[in-house]
Write a structure and sequence with these properties.
With 513 residues, this protein is α+β, with helices and mostly antiparallel strands. The protein is 15% helix and 38% strand. It contains eight helices and 31 strands. The chain has helices at 2-12, 20-30, 39-47, 59-64, 102-121, 187-194, 318-322, 445-452, and strands spanning 127-130, 135-138, 143-150, 161-165, 174-178, 198-204, 207-212, 221-226, 239-247, 252-254, 259-263, 268-275, 282-291, 300-305, 311-313, 326-330, 335-340, 349-360, 366-373, 377-382, 388-394, 398-400, 405-413, 420-427, 430-435, 441-443, 456-460, 465-470, 479-488, 496-501, 505-510. Strands 11, 13, 14, 15, 18, 19 and 20 form a seven-stranded mixed β-sheet that branches. Strands 22, 24, 25, 26, 29, 30 and 31 form a seven-stranded mixed β-sheet that branches. A five-stranded mixed β-sheet has the order 2-9-8-4-5. The radius of gyration is 43 Å and the shape is elongated. The termini are far apart. Mean pLDDT is 79; it is low at 1-87, 89-98 and 116-123.
Length: 513
């Protein structure tokens, strides 16, 4: 196309004669006082060179820009005139007669071709992106690297191949693992790939994670993620690289194993030693966790000092943390102390300390590169006068439809007037109603309508007796009833100190007729 555009100018220029453009340029150079050229018309002439059939700018638009509405040849008489007193005609009036400057023609043609090229880049260009490096990970850890492809053609599920360039041979590609070719790995990686010590997890059709489950020092290097071409033609990038450095795991976490016995209300203090030594800029997080029983696997967070130096309590310990009864303090270069003031029976069980080392990746995301736990210590809490017994009774266990049923839940405890209880009524293990420490009654949804109609009633009779009454029992009221009682430290506290459930009482309702 550039040749065609250039041809337009060459065909129109008589051999050996200067163009009107050159004559006008020469005239301006000879008379610098000529400064009132019609710039809108001048640029319009440039865009008219290829017979684009564009109409001339209206006189109104030229006037708005401050230019005269007179033709260029009729303005600046005596100024910038060539022999004969006339400047060249505007280009739209002479495209058939005058040539166009060749260098500008070629410039515009090249710009047009570049425009076409960049438009092509915005559609259908394949781009492979890999996790930004350099990355630092600790030896022995389980690490992942992500890779994704966009702008591709072909199937929605793309294939990926991972390779490494080792520091000892940075120009030599060593193939690791592929999503499509089982024979892709080199011999030094074959066994680790077969045993899934190294594997690729497909996150979605065009994105994967490379997993290395036990990072070794020899795994350091430049990783390349490659996607085989599925486009009709090669266009874009087909691979991307990132650097991974393997550093020593220097995190140390320890606590003296012990068995502690405290009375309810005592102050308990536990210490944990945490240290690290890394050349990179890293942060530490330290936390304490609680297991209620020896066979318990799900730990409850007590209190953690985060990598951002913020204290975060677990949900069950939040009220006591806000009250200042649960604290975590750094009392030395490597010593962290957990304090529990007013220890409760619910605190007994096993506790341990956990620490983690965090590093900020180039994508500004923080990653825990090492995490370790101490052994567990055992805490026993001796209850002080917190005995609690629960008994459920019924006037009669065998009823007919339409009869009334009254169940009494009786608490046996010392100093019950100074303690706070929540009572729940259960039918076949499902909650019917509850009365909180303030005496507020809440019905389960399926019983609300009957309660509004006056068919059900539940209330706190005194500090030790709670009553449930069902007027006009039906067959759906058959089953085993229990009474569950939980003691809380304060009326608004959702964390129970202890809970006891009565034995079950069977209620049989006979149909009428």
């Amino acid at each position: 196309m550039a040749a065609e555009l250039a041809g337009l100018g060459e065909a129109r220029q008589p051999a050996g004669s200067p163009s009107n453009w050159e004559q006008a340029t020469s005239a301006v150079a000879e008379n610098p006082s000529c400064a009132k050229l019609d710039l809108p018309n001048t640029w319009y002439e440039i865009w008219s060179f290829g017979r684009l059939s564009l109409p001339p700018l209206s006189s109104g638009s030229r006037s708005r820009r401050g230019a005269s509405s007179q033709p260029l040849s009729q303005r600046q008489s005596g100024c910038c005139s060539r022999p004969g007193g006339r400047l060249p005609l505007p280009l739209w009036k002479r495209t058939q007669a005058e040539p166009f400057p060749m260098e500008l023609t070629r410039c515009l043609a090249a710009a047009f071709l570049l425009l076409i090229f960049f438009l092509g880049l915005s559609s259908g260009q394949r781009v492979v992106t890999v996790q930004k490096g350099p990355l630092y990970r600790t030896e022995g850890s389980h690490i992942t690297l992500w890779c994704k492809v966009s702008g591709y053609q072909g199937p929605a599920e793309q294939n990926f191949q991972w390779s490494i360039y080792l520091p000892s041979a940075p120009e030599r590609e060593v193939q690791i693992v592929s999503t499509v070719d089982p024979s892709f790995p080199y011999a030094i990686y074959t066994q680790r790939v077969r045993s899934r010590g190294i594997y690729v997890e497909r996150v979605q059709g065009d994105a994967v994670l490379l997993h290395i489950t036990d990072l070794q020092d020899r795994d350091a290097g430049q990783y390349e993620c490659h996607t085989p071409n599925t486009n009709e033609r090669h266009f874009g990038s087909y691979s991307a690289k990132t650097n991974l450095s393997v550093i020593a795991d220097t995190l140390s976490v320890s606590m003296v194993p012990q068995v502690l016995t405290h009375n309810e209300g005592d102050l308990v203090e536990l210490t944990c030693e945490v240290s690290k030594s890394t050349a990179q800029h890293t942060h530490l997080s330290v936390g304490w966790y609680h297991l209620h029983g020896a066979g318990e696997h799900r730990a409850e967070e007590v209190l953690t000092l985060s990598k951002d130096f913020v204290l975060k309590p677990g949900p069950s310990y939040a009220p006591r943390f806000l009250a200042g009864d649960v604290q975590l303090n750094k009392v030395g270069n490597t010593t962290y102390k957990l304090s529990i003031r007013g220890v409760e029976p619910s605190d007994q069980g096993q506790l341990y300390c956990e620490a983690a080392v965090w590093i900020e990746d180039p994508d500004q995301m923080w990653k825990d590169i090492s995490r370790k736990q101490t052994g567990r210590m055992t805490l026993a809490v001796v209850s002080q006068g917190r005995d609690l017994s629960v008994e459920i009774t019924a006037a009669e266990g065998s009823l007919s439809e339409g009869d009334s049923l009254q169940l009494n839940c009786t608490l046996g405890s010392q100093k019950s007037s100074n303690r706070h209880f929540q009572v729940r009524w259960l039918l076949n293990g499902m909650e019917v109603a509850r009365v909180d420490p303030h005496g507020v009654l809440t019905w389960e949804e399926e019983y609300e309508e009957r309660a509004k109609l006056g068919q059900l009633q539940a209330f706190k009779q005194n500090n030790t007796v709670y009553v449930l009454i069902i007027y006009e029992v039906g067959l759906k009221d058959n089953g085993t009833y229990h009474c569950s009682v939980s003691e809380v430290k304060t009326p608004g506290d959702f964390h129970s100190i202890q809970t006891n459930v009565s034995s079950g009482i069977q209620v049989d309702v006979k149909p009428i007729g």
